[in-house]
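tmp note - LysR substrate-binding domain-containing protein
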Amino acid sequence: MTFGVCLLHEQPSVVQTRVLYREYFGLFCGPPHRLFGKNDIDVSELRNEHSVSFESDELNGPLSGVAHLRTWLGMRSVPRGLSSNLPEVRRMIVTNIGIGALPVHVARKDVQAGLLWQVPPYDSLPAVDIHILTNARRSLNSAEKLLLDLLNTELDSVPLTERTYSA
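out:
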């Protein structure tokens, strides 16, 4: 691997990493769910709820904040559905396979369209950093070098606060 974009839980020793952007994950349900459209939801109403999630949503994984949130809420520990694909996790939420976590900025359009409903908590949401990885032991072709130079120039000039999607 010369470079890539991914989630990380721990920095690998053989590659360099930089935070590309930060996003916040909220919990959502779909129209068939009993909490859909309901305001003033108490967090206790999420106890024993079924969930769906990403394959990397583990207590020791890159989405550990989401896993800790589910545990804190007392949701069922084994998700009904898992995927590494965001549109697939979204589909499982919309069709009521379970409540699931999505980046708030990604789900916003579906909330406005009436396909998703955010459930608590609404504050102190798990932050997830998306990283650029580079491997100094691999040589870059001219296109890769140009792209990484452009990305690094932007990352050097734009503070993380301006590369953070608001919750």
